[in-house]
Amino acid sequence: MAEKTRGRPRSFDAGAALDRAVEVFWRQGYEGASLSDLTEAMGINRPSMYAAFGNKDDLFRLAVARYAEIDMAYAREALAQPTAYAVIEGFLRANADALTRADRPAGCLSIQGGLAAGSDHGHVARFLAESRLTGERALAARLGRAVDEGDLPDGTDPVALARYVMVVSEGNAVHAAAGADRASLHATIDIALTALTPDRSPRPIGG
Fold first, then answer.
1. Which of 53, 68, 147, 203 gets the most CB atoms within 10 Å of its CB?
2. Distances in whole angstroms, Cα of residue 165 to Cα of each of 13, 25, 85, 203
3. Where is the HTH tetR-type domain (predicted)?
4. Among 84, 90, 86, residue whose Cα is nearest residue 145
C-alpha cells in the first residue's frame, strides 16, 4: 500500500479509502459491491485502486483485515480479561454493541460479506469462514488456559465452548442485520450466559 504510480506519490489517503471500501463491502457484500460502487465511495479511479490495492479480491481481503484490526479490536480486549466468564461476557456484550452502532452498517462484515452465492465458487465464503475460525481458535486457546488454571471446571471442552460463544455472536449478527435492536441482542446474551453456571444464574464461575 506504499506503492507509487509512475514515480508520483498517491494523492489520496489510502487508509481512509480502505475504510470506505470496508463500509461498501459491509453493506453490499462481496458480490453486491461493484467496482464502480467501490471506486466511487473510495474517491479514486480504477487504475488508482488497482495500483494501491490490487484487484477486487485483493481489496476485499485488505478490507477484512482492516475490519478485524479496527472494528473488532474489542475481541482482543476481551481475551485479556482475567476470568473465562469475563472473557465471554466482555466479548458478547461488546459484539452486540458493535453490531448495532449507529455510525456503522448493522450486522457484521464477516457474515454479510459472503452471504450471497455468486460465480466465485464459494472462495469468498470460505475465506470469511476461515477468518472467523481464526478468532474462534484464539478464544478456544484462552478458554483452554482457563481450564488449566482451574477457572473453568475440569472436563470443560474449550473448543466446544468457544464454538458456542461464536454461534451466539454470529446469530446476533444475522439478527442485527435484519433489524434487531441492541436491547434484544443483550437479552439473548443474558440467556446464553446462564449456560456458564451450574445454577443457571448469570454469575461468574467460581464467583
1. 53
2. 37, 25, 11, 16
3. 11-71
4. 84
Closest CA to 195 of 150, 149, 163: 163
> Per the structure block, which three cell numbers stand in for 185?
441482542
Q: What is the DSSP string of 62-131?
A: HHHHHHHHHTTHHHHHHHTSSSHHHHHHHHHHHHHHHHT-TTS-SS-HHHHTT-S--TTTTHHHHHHHHH
Q: What percent of the chain has pLDDT over 70?
A: 87
Hey, is 157 helix, strand or coil?
coil
pLDDT-derived band at 119, boundaries 50, 70, 90:
low
pLDDT tens-place string over residues 173-201: 999 999 999 999 999 999 999 988 755 44
Cα 78 → chain centroid: 13
- The C-alpha cell at 67 is 475490519
Closest CA to 206 of 149, 135, 166: 149
For the chain, helix, strand, coil in percent to 5 are 65, 0, 30
Q: Specify whether the CB–CB gap between 202 and 194 falls below 8 A.
A: yes
Tell me the pTM. 0.84
- pLDDT tens for residues 74-95? 999 999 999 999 999 999 999 9
